[in-house]
Amino acid sequence: MDIQTLTFIIVGLTFALYIAIAIWSRAGSTNDFYVAGGGVHPVLNGMATAADWMSAASFISMAGIIAFAGYDGSVYLMGWTGGYVLLALCLAPYLRKFGKFTVPDFIGDRYYSQTARTIAVLCAILISFTYIAGQMRGVGVVFSRFLEVEIATGVIIGAVIVFFYTVLGGMKGITYTQVAQFCVLAFAYLVPAIFISIYMTGHFLPQSGFGGTIAEGVAGEGNFLLARLDGLSEELGLAAYTEGVRSKIDVFAITCALMVGTAGLPHVIVRFFTVPKVHDARRSAGWALVFISLVYLTAPSIAAFAKVNLINTLNGPELTGVEYENAPTWVKNWEKTGLITWEDTNGDGKMFYSGDERNEMTVDRDIIVLANPEIADLPAWVVALVAAGGVAAALSTSAGLLLVISTSISHDLLKRTLAPNITDRQELLSARIAAAVAIALSVWFGIHPPGFVAQVVAFAFGLAAASFFPAIILGIFHKRMNSTGAIAGMVVGVVFTLSYIIYFKFISPELNTAEHWLFSVSPEGIGTVGMLLNFIVAVAVHKLTGDAPQQTQELVESIRYPRGAGGAVDH
Amino acid sequence: MAFKSEELAKAYWRENIGLVLKLLAIWFLVSYGFGIILVDWLNQFTFFGFKLGFWFAQQGAIITFVILIFVYVKRMAALDNKYEVHEE
């Protein structure tokens, strides 16, 4: 069977599974729709959180970024995992005890203010929407490559599927669907990595294999893989793989923005409302990170293997270049998509990849994970499996985000602010309409993307770091913090971060270099500065405007210990 | 109020904060410390074929994060029991 047919079968089977689960667990009440009635086991919840969390950016694009950026790619590895420590230690247990549905609910109640709630809702919609716009593009890329359809068609097919199980299933459907999606994506990520590790280094475990020595029969045999990679990089005029080129302060800022952003992302936080107890909320964060680590500890090995393989297959074992006539099929396959190009600048008929003037290849880093099994000549079913994994990653995250957008609008904006008298049924209906509108908009952004997927996603994190994180942390750990301070902090943080990103990305992209950046921090890392501003402004304004009312301080006291946590309740 | 006295509530919170700060210090050390600030210095050592600083940045920090959360879960459960504020 050819790759095309196998891809159809495997992707089709996984889809059937997701839809079956969504229908089987159709939500009945609003409580079920939002948080699965608070009855999901922590290990399963951890798995669902992991799937929810790992998006197309993690699955498709992260290992590729690391392959090309080497050490500098570590910002994603540390940044996208370290946030879970903050979540588990500083947020999840307290928010679970607080026992409301959404982040804006917490902010609105804790800061006893409709204004604070409305600002939080708008931030949640902005963050989720920035994020989902990138995801829809990711869905589209995978579909169009493997089903050989136009990118626009790919985006629409993906959107229809996401819409189905978000709207029919609600959170409960999503939770169990996401458990299935985690299994598919982890399997799809690990299987090719194991194959390649055995081939390249003889190690069964890719996670430790890339520290090993190169196996017999592969160019550079007997050398440590990473040393070989550093040597190759030097010879080809690329930066040493294990050392970076970004400034330390920028690496620091991006890592921090991604970590804090993780802890402030509304669709991740809402996960911790779905477990029965405070103790389970803590455990859930731990399990989520265990499952995420499965992929994240493998990503750097895929990156290193892929980079060595890429250089070997393009430049040949002697680094003299490979005749274009004899180019492997994966090069030809991907050339059709325009994501690999070859320009024979020296006219010798051979391909050559390097970091200097000898270079004749452009290789899009986003293809690395998808092309990796082809580069390593793995069986067709592995290639098909990776396609299914990419689809699972993109769909699961989109569904979670869509739910945040629809609950923000129907619950926070309508029920709590604009139309408090609507019935349960009307609220559920408006949630579904909101989901439909949000998905229609994101389809448009998927077809006309505002930038690269990974960039757009990183900005969503910066915005979350600069808006929610300080407001939630102060809300829990600074019981006298008042609403004026929190509102001022959120507004300053998010406006500053958004302006900086828009300025360097859309208004004056030609100035987007280190010497023009504030404190040499790139737009990807600026959320860290926005977060600090948020904290400073909030504390300063609080000093000038007096303490939060006694009642609020007592409420804060009561979320600081687990006893008495009920299920998540509506008002 | 679940605590028997105001003092117990304060003591519980103090111990909680102490634990969290200790764990966050380790969290900071392995990622920002070993993985970023001290990375060049640590790279002179090798660890199973990896330069040590590079390894912390790409894998070591993540493994430590997982351990930190489970230590926290365990220690907090013990703390909740000690002050009798655990869930029934």
UniProtKB/TrEMBL annotation, chain A:
It is found in: Membrane. GO terms for molecular function: symporter activity. Keywords: Cell membrane, Ion transport, Membrane, Sodium, Sodium transport, Symport, Transmembrane, Transmembrane helix, Transport. It comes from the Bacteria. The keyword Transmembrane helix applies. GO terms for cellular component: plasma membrane. GO terms for biological process: carboxylic acid transport; sodium ion transport. It is a multi-pass membrane protein. The chain crosses the membrane at residues 6-24, 53-71, 77-95, 116-134, 146-167, 179-200, 251-273, 285-306, 380-407, 428-447, 453-477, 484-504, 516-541. Pfam families: SSF. Its main location: membrane. Belongs to the sodium:solute symporter (SSF) (TC 2.A.21) family. This is Cation acetate symporter.
TrEMBL record, chain B:
The chain crosses the membrane at residues 20-42, 54-73. Residues 9-86 form the Sodium symporter small subunit domain. It comes from the Bacteria. Keywords: Membrane, Transmembrane, Transmembrane helix. NCBIfam families: Na_symport_sm (TIGR03647). This is DUF4212 domain-containing protein. The lineage of its organism: Bacteria, Pseudomonadati, Pseudomonadota, Gammaproteobacteria, Alteromonadales.
